[in-house]
Design a protein that fits this description.
This is Glycoside hydrolase family 127 protein. Residues 11-413 form the Non-reducing end beta-L-arabinofuranosidase-like GH127 catalytic domain. InterPro entries: 6-hairpin_glycosidase_sf, Beta-AFase-like, Beta-AFase-like_GH127_C, Beta-AFase-like_GH127_cat, Beta-AFase-like_GH127_middle. Residues 424-518 form the Non-reducing end beta-L-arabinofuranosidase-like GH127 middle domain. Pfam families: Beta-AFase-like_GH127_cat, Glyco_hydro127C, Glyco_hydro127M. The chain has helices at residues 17-41, 71-88, 92-108, 117-122, 131-134, 136-154, 158-173, 190-201, 204-216, 226-233, 265-282, 285-301, 333-349, 353-369, 400-410, and strands at 5-6, 12-14, 385-387, 417-420, 423-426, 432-438, 441-449, 456-463, 467-474, 483-486, 489-491, 499-506, 510-515, 520-523, 535-540, 543-548, 559-560, 568-572, 579-589, 606-615, 626-628, 631-632. Strands 3, 14, 15, 16, 17, 18, 19, 20, 21 and 22 form a 10-stranded antiparallel β-sheet that branches. By secondary structure, the protein is α+β, with helices and mostly antiparallel strands. It folds into 3 domains: 5-415, Alpha/alpha barrel (Glycosyltransferase), CATH 1.50.10.10; 417-515, Golgi alpha-mannosidase II (Immunoglobulin-like), CATH 2.60.40.1180; 520-632, no CATH class. The two termini are 46 Å apart. Bound molecules: beta-L-arabinofuranose and zinc ion. The site of zinc ion has 7 residues, from α13 and α15.
Length: 633
């Protein structure tokens, strides 16, 4: 069923200004500063065994949980981000640090392959007793993803061997065989890593283990729910679970029966990613149908306009349909990063622009907002409205988002292209060069553009001799009036499910030009999103905009954009490194003329004011400030 394969980040070179700048920042500032934070927080030291054990840095909560259970995952994610970054530009110091971490992990690994520094150090007798809460499989997943990325970036496979031994141990421990536990992770993630390891190594055992975890999840057919079994074995009442039911970790039903997006958002998105991967690997229609149902559910009822997911802090996840509060939005950075993963897999299953549109939305907006311009400050939760109190963190007690966003930016090259036997699909634009296999040969594609600021895209092709294949160019859902030409000759633009398909004998020197007009547009929410009633959001191209107080003379919460006011775009090369802003004449109610009353029988008088909006992803880079995505109309 897999019709398209992704092209690994290491095979694509980013050349365009937008992503080159972000990549360089991640390499030069984010990776080194994250390493410093890992050292200061004790995470780096926690994988050095044996040693006198320091007390827990992060005390246990009432349910006995501490985020230190998943410190190994932070190491794995940092290695992955660093590996992706050095594939962009090799850096001996970073590589040496990765090697030192691998030394520590290799030394910590137990003779049977078990690897989890927290349990090895602190609770060796309790290993594999609480998959529901304690992240052992999640940690291994991130370490394995780090190992795969490092292998892609450098060709070095020592870390991969360490992780292969760990996976062999996991495969021996969990499964449906005699003496095995029928467990699966409380926090999904390892399934994605295993599929990546299968692709990198061709070793089927990785795929089999991923398949087992997905198939067994939520299974109660002739067996007791695994999380109940292990709770009882710990002497706990399963009903005393702090999240009440297993929707929290999407283990309430077998995955093929799930149609409603529920629970913890990051867990959900990681699981759907793996489901789409496995649907493609096995040609599994039931799994594909479940992915499609879940996709419709989340994108039609439970997604922020910025591509954020999960409104609630309580479960870090989903609540009810159309419940999308702005000022309390959780919309965790990790969840949008994970949506990029899922959407990329859906595109491989089925080349449909709706998947690329959401990939791009999550990437350029909610996910990218998670990393500051200086590369050293982060958002964990991504509000769509702030009274000025929301701010970026230099680090977080639970630093999951910090290295999720850096690994995404460092590997963004991997989301540009998809390849099939006789087709190349271009999903993203922004300046990327790659030599790709197609039609029995190779073709070098050099795409240049100033995307996301400008929709003029040029693609030069250099096939090995003349080759017949289809070049499928994404025409984004937000774009109206796209035009295209090959070697200067205009083409009719009639996209098939979001892709303009050009099939011909391509020859060296061929050039395709695609023009994707970017207009400032107004967006409205479904009438049942009560928090957005009577409000409008602004978008241009892939970017959603917001008003920050810095650029607006009137308080942003009072801005009202008349429904007929033209909204214009202006490139401000001197602002925030060069961004396109949106401008309009607006109105704002005047509080001074209102008086001291809280309520009155007449509206406050309004006066005209200028409105300036900046891309959402770049907000809060000039200090804390009030901000508003949804404006009164
Ligand atoms: O539990 C590991 C990570 O920490 C989750 O994915 C995030 O939501 C945060 O809780
Ligand atoms: Zn996170």
């Amino acid at each position: 069923m897999r019709t398209y394969a992704s092209v690994p980040f290491s095979d694509v070179t980013i050349t365009g200004p937008f992503w080159s700048e972000r990549l360089e920042t991640v390499l030069a500032r984010t990776i080194p500063s994250q390493l410093e934070k890992l050292e200061q927080s004790g995470i780096r030291g926690s994988i050095k065994l044996p040693k006198p054990l320091p007390p827990l840095t992060i005390p246990r909560q009432s349910n006995n949980f501490t985020v230190q259970y998943f410190w190994d995952s932070d190491i794995g994610k940092w290695i992955e981000a660093a590996a992706c970054a050095i594939s962009h530009r090799r850096d001996a110091a970073i590589e040496a640090e990765i090697e030192a971490m691998i030394d520590d992990l290799e030394a910590a690994q137990q003779p049977d392959g078990y690897l989890n520094c927290f349990y090895i150090e602190r609770e060796p007798e309790n290993r594999w007793t609480n998959l529901r809460d304690n992240h052992e499989l999640y940690n291994l997943g991130h370490l394995l993803e780090g190992a795969v990325a490092y292998y892609h970036a450098t060709g070095k496979d020592r870390f991969l061997s360490v992780m292969e031994r760990a996976m062999d141990h996991v495969a021996a421990t969990f499964g449906r065989g005699e003496g095995q536990k029928r467990g699966y992770p409380g926090h999904q993630e390892i399934e994605i890593a295993l599929v990546r390891a299968w692709h990198a190594t061709g070793k089927r055992k990785f795929l089999d283990l991923a398949t087992y975890f997905i198939d067994e999840r939520g299974n109660t057919d002739g067996v007791e729910h695994y999380f109940d079994i292990e709770a009882r074995a710990r002497g706990e009442d399963p009903k005393a679970y702090w999240f009440e039911n297993y929707e929290y970790g999407q283990a309430h039903l077998p995955v093929r029966e799930q149609t409603k997006v529920v629970g913890h958002a990051v867990r959900a998105m990681y699981m759907y990613t793996a489901m789409a991967d496995l649907a493609a690997e096995h040609g599994d229609d039931a799994l594909k149908a479940a992915c499609e149902a879940l996709w419709r559910d989340v994108t039609e009822k439970r997604m922020y306009v910025t591509g954020g997911f999960g409104p609630s802090e309580h479960n870090e996840g989903f609540t009810k349909d159309y419940d999308l509060p702005n000022d309390t939005a959780y919309a965790e950075t990790c969840a949008s990063v994970a949506m990029v993963f899922w959407a990329a897999r859906m595109l491989n299953l089925d080349l449909d622009g709706q998947y690329a549109d959401i990939l791009e939305l999550a990437l350029y907006n909610n996910a990218l907002a998670g990393l500051s311009r200086d590369g050293e400050h982060y958002f964990y939760d991504n509000k769509l409205e702030s009274d000025g109190s929301h701010h970026r963190w230099a680090w977080h007690e639970c630093p999951c988002c910090t290295m999720n966003v850096s690994r995404l930016v460092a590997s963004v090259a991997g989301y540009f292209y998809g390849v099939a036997e006789t087709e190349i699909a271009v999903h993203l634009y922004g300046g990327a060069t790659a030599t790709l296999p197609v039609a029995g040969g190779r073709v070098t594609l050099t795409e240049t553009s100033d995307y996301p600021w400008d929709g003029a895209v040029r693609i030069a092709l250099e096939p090995e001799g003349t080759r017949t294949f289809t070049l499928s160019l994404r025409v984004p859902g937000w774009c109206h009036g796209a035009t295209a030409s090959v070697n200067g000759e205009a083409l009719e633009v009639a996209p098939e499910r979001g892709y303009l398909k050009i099939t011909r004998d391509w020859a060296p020197g061929d050039v395709v030009e695609l023009n994707l007009p970017m207009q400032a547009e107004r967006l409205y929410a479904h009438p049942d999103v009560r928090q957005d009633a009577g409000r409008v959001a602004l978008r241009r191209g892939p970017l959603v905009y917001c008003c920050e107080q810095h650029d607006n003379p009137a308080p942003v919460n009072r801005l009202r954009l008349p429904s007929d006011a033209p909204v214009t775009a202006r490139h401000a090369s001197d602002l925030l490194g060069g961004i396109t802003v949106l401008e309009a004449r607006a109105e704002a109610e005047d509080a001074d003329a209102w008086g001291g009353n809280l309520y009155a029988t007449r509206r406050a008088p309004s006066s005209e004011t200028a409105l300036t909006a900046v891309p959402y992803y770049i907000w809060c880079n000039r200090g804390q400030t009030p901000m508003q995505v949804w404006l009164q109309e």
